[in-house]
Amino acid sequence: MTLKLFDTHTHFDVPDFDHDREQLAYAAKAAGIEHLILIGFLQKRFADLLGTHDFINHLENAPQSHLAPGLHPFYIEQHQIEHLQDLEQLLKNQNCIAIAEIGLDTFLKQHKQAEMFQKQKDFFAAQLELAQQFDKPVLLHIRKSHAEVLHILKQQQFKQGGIAHAFGGGVEEAKAFIKLGFKLGITGQITNPNARKLHQVVQYVGPEHLVLETDCPDMTPLCCQSSTEQRTRNTPANLPYVLQGLAKSLHMNKEVLAEQLWKNTHQALHLAI
């Protein structure tokens, strides 16, 4: 039996997929992926995001595509104030499911510098305001900045919730995001037995607070990195491996877990089941 799955985080619009996107979309549907979200990160990619979205939704036997445009903190140097206006236009003119991926990232030394970090915070806050204005959930990118992201969410009294993408925090941070109405996005990392902190978090919070994502072409599940059948480039069709890894970590039946995750995803994205 093919289970119904929802890939909540893909970069399926990037050039890595230009030569075989159609075949991969069919493969994803055949693997049970009913829906996928195309995530924004740069204003100059918005046109490609829209183009890919339309392309997928005109295919038969492909997952349904959803749009989540946004300005990613890692590319903060490239963002300009007018890009926020372009984002607002997209939200007005397109049926967007969320704003993504937004948040804070202090992984690189230059992004920790006061001026750059302030710019990240300003863009994050501005996009949260847009989410409130349009009543949209947000998909959060958080890297080495959990406390600051939580602080801004609380400061803005953000109530729309969403997903903490590729969650990498500990149990305490997980509890804090859940309390604010967020689900935790689980990637192929869960297939790695050495990702101890992640296993600890999912086992602590339980299946009610989790959703699945591939984050393709990144975050390839461990089994696909060495297997000759699967390429090392991650694709939406690999989502069942993420489900498998999570079911194993939670000692749960795959079917029961898939049903719970389907509900969670609809809840996080304000969708009727």
- By DSSP, the count of extended strands is 8
Determine the mean pLDDT.
Answer: 95
Given helix and strand content, the structural type is alpha/beta
What sequence of helices (H) and strands (E) makes up the elements? EHEHEHEHHEHEHEHEHHH
What share of the residues lie within helices?
A: 40-55%
**Structural shape:** globular
Enumerate how many helices there are, as a single number. 11
Poorly predicted runs of 5 or more residues: none
Distance between the termini: 20 Å
Strand content: 15-25%
Strand order of the largest sheet: 4-5-6-7-8
In this structure, how is the largest beta sheet organized?
A: 5 strands, parallel
Spatial extent as radius of gyration: 17 Å
Topology, element by element:
Layout: E1 5-10, H1 21-30, E2 33-39, H2 46-57, E3 64-68, H3 81-93, E4 99-105, H4 109-112, H5 114-134, E5 138-143, H6 146-155, E6 162-164, H7 171-179, E7 182-186, H8 196-205, E8 210-212, H9 222-226, H10 239-250, H11 254-268
Helix pairs in contact: 3-5
